[in-house]
């Protein structure tokens, strides 16, 4: 990507007959963006050129003029959640994926989220999130309901605008990074004001972040900077500690009582509502002193996070019986649909353990690699 050069930009603009005052305004805007160590982009056509995509494709995605085509421009499918129910995944078409990938790599990944956010941030790990709450008295765990799906394109627009990008381009990039969910109810998801709409850009519906787009994780953190600031202030005022891992909010108190914990929970819900979120009451937990505390899969009762015993025992069980009875028989006995499914599951769990405890992870990995996977042409 070519480095921003105001002199060359102005010189080329004048040679093409552009007004000098107009070019000055663009240079000012370019300098503002460049000061943030972000790529200077002025228009959708400019974005298409930088991302090696077609302007006609991007314009079509922004205008949403092909929404009548089922699933366009995403392929949507559901997967089962561990806790029951289904999670919808939306995979963008190759052209849309290309521009989303460029935006993510060149813009979003250069912006630092709030310090309380631990998911989707390079060099921030799940163990660091858990470490903040080790040895606590009370632990308050709140899950944000439909996290990505409740972040609107208006909030995404504000992210790009606050980074210094032109208003129109911010709107267009917000459209490129969001998806309209058909038949969604609520005023928040309807566009009632088309008074100043550009021809072809008018749409009755407001999009939200799709789960499956490369831009959604980073955008969710940047949209939540204000939320994280407010929740951090709440934690400080209540003598608590706060951190967030994607849609999992955690507050911990060194001491206190149930009344204090309930008060904090109520205040969290109020703040969430102000950002268009609501808490999932089925997953909310207020865990008192002395009770077992597990946060993002880690036991935080002691001074350092630990892999829970049931996870360690489960891996040992799978390794033992896969070796004793054979991989295929064990898969059938334990209800795995395929050997590759079992391979991916167990490899993933061991990888997770390694990220927390490298010694334990290496031991499990050695046993895992000693199994006769070669017999199955994986």
Automatic annotation (TrEMBL):
Organism this protein belongs to: Klebsiella oxytoca
Residue span(s) of domain Reverse transcriptase: 1-300
PANTHER family in alphabetical order: NUCLEAR INTRON MATURASE 1, MITOCHONDRIAL-RELATED, RNA-DIRECTED DNA POLYMERASE
Family, per entry: Belongs to the bacterial reverse transcriptase family.
A Pfam match: RVT_1
GO terms (BP aspect): defense response to virus
Keywords associated with the record: Antiviral defense, Magnesium, Metal-binding, Nucleotidyltransferase, RNA-directed DNA polymerase, Transferase
Protein name: RNA-directed DNA polymerase
Catalytic reaction equation(s): DNA(n) + a 2'-deoxyribonucleoside 5'-triphosphate = DNA(n+1) + diphosphate
First-tier enzyme category under EC: transferase
């Amino acid at each position: 990507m070519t480095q921003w050069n105001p002199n060359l930009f102005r010189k080329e603009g004048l040679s093409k007959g552009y007004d000098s005052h107009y070019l000055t305004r663009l240079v000012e805007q370019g300098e503002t963006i460049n000061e943030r160590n972000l790529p200077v982009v002025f228009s959708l056509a400019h974005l298409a050129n930088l991302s090696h995509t077609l302007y006609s494709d991007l314009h079509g995605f922004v205008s949403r003029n092909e929404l009548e085509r089922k699933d366009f421009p995403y392929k949507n499918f559901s997967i089962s959640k561990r806790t029951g129910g289904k999670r919808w995944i939306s995979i963008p078409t190759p052209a849309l994926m290309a521009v989303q990938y460029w935006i993510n790599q060149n813009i979003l990944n250069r912006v630092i989220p709030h310090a309380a956010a631990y998911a989707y941030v390079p060099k921030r790990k799940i163990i660091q999130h858990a470490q903040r709450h080790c040895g606590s008295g009370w632990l308050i765990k709140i899950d944000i309901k439909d996290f990505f799906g409740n972040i609107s394109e208006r909030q995404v627009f504000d992210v790009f605008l606050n980074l210094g990008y032109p208003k129109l381009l911010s709107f267009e990039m917000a459209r490129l990074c969001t998806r309209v969910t058909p038949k969604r109810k609520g005023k928040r998801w309807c566009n009632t004001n088309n008074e100043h709409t550009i021809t072809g850009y008018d749409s009755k519906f407001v999009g939200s972040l799709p789960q499956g787009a490369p831009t959604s994780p980073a955008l969710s953190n940047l949209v939540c900077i204000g939320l994280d600031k407010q929740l951090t202030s709440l934690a400080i005022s209540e003598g608590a500690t706060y951190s967030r891992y994607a849609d999992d909010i955690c507050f911990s108190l060194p001491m206190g009582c149930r009344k204090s914990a309930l008060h904090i929970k109520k205040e969290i819900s109020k703040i969430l509502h102000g950002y268009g979120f609501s808490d999932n009451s089925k997953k909310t937990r207020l865990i008192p002193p002395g009770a077992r505390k597990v946060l993002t899969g880690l036991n935080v009762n002691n001074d350092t996070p630990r892999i829970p015993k049931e996870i360690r025992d489960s891996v040992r069980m799978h390794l033992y019986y896969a070796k004793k009875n054979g991989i295929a028989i064990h898969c059938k006995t334990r209800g795995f649909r395929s050997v590759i499914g079992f391979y991916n599951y167990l490899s993933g769990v061991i990888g997770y353990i390694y990220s927390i405890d490298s010694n334990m992870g290496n031991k499990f990995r050695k046993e895992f690699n000693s199994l006769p996977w070669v017999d199955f042409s994986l």
